[in-house]
Amino acid sequence: MHDPRETSPGTTSAGATSPGATSAPSASGDSPAPPRPDRWERHADFLAHALGQIDPLSANVGAVEADLLTLSHRMMRTIERSLPETLEDFAPLKPALDSLLKVQRMIGRFAVLDAHLEARRGSLR
Fold first, then answer.
1. Which of 61, 37, 63, 70 is CA-nearest to residue 48?
2. Fewest C-beta in 10 Å: which of 5, 14, 44, 111?
3. pLDDT for 94 beyond 50
4. Helix (H), strand (E), coil (C) string for 31-97
5. What is the C-alpha separation between 46 and 58, in angstroms, rounded?
6. How far apart are CA 110 and CA 82, in angstroms?
7. For 10-39, what is each residue's pLDDT tens digit?
8. How far apart are CA 94 and CA 106, in angstroms?
9. 81: number of Cβ within 10 Å
10. Who has greater pLDDT, 3 or 77?
11. Is there a contact between 37 and 44 (Cβ–Cβ < 8 Å)?
């Protein structure tokens, strides 16, 4: 499977932050804070956390949620590259936008399911 971080800006093929990655300014404004993990890295962190769950159902729910997050992000980046200048020209993007919204709704549903599983684990302790 293709690693999405290989083609994401600000990361190397290993997922490390490249020198061109953006960093957040420090609170004092004197020097920039260390680079924050980019979104692709956070997807990988989410997946690693999910797969580390002892409960197989929770691990798989989290893995699917991580896949959906990655898919959503890739769809959004593709749509952003295709954004027209005027509202009248948005019609060709409607199917892609509808698909993106469906994926994002699924992410929300999986997040709710994940929260229910977490609550269940907490009540079983």
1. 63
2. 14
3. yes
4. CECCCCCCHHHHHHHHHHHHHCCCCHHHHHHHHHHHHHHHHHHHHHHHHHHCCCCCHHHHHHHHHHH
5. 12
6. 28
7. 433 334 333 334 444 445 555 666 666 788
8. 18
9. 7
10. 77
11. no
At residue 40, the pLDDT reads 86
Six-digit token pair at 49?
A: 């956390």
| Region of poorest pLDDT, from 16-30, 44-58, 67-81 | 16-30
Is-contact 22 10, C-beta < 8 A?
Answer: yes
User: Token pair for residue 68?
Assistant: 């959906």
Distance CA 60, CA 53 (A): 9
11 forms beta bridges with: 17
Question: What is the pLDDT, as a whole number, of residue 30?
Answer: 59
pLDDT at 3 over 80: no
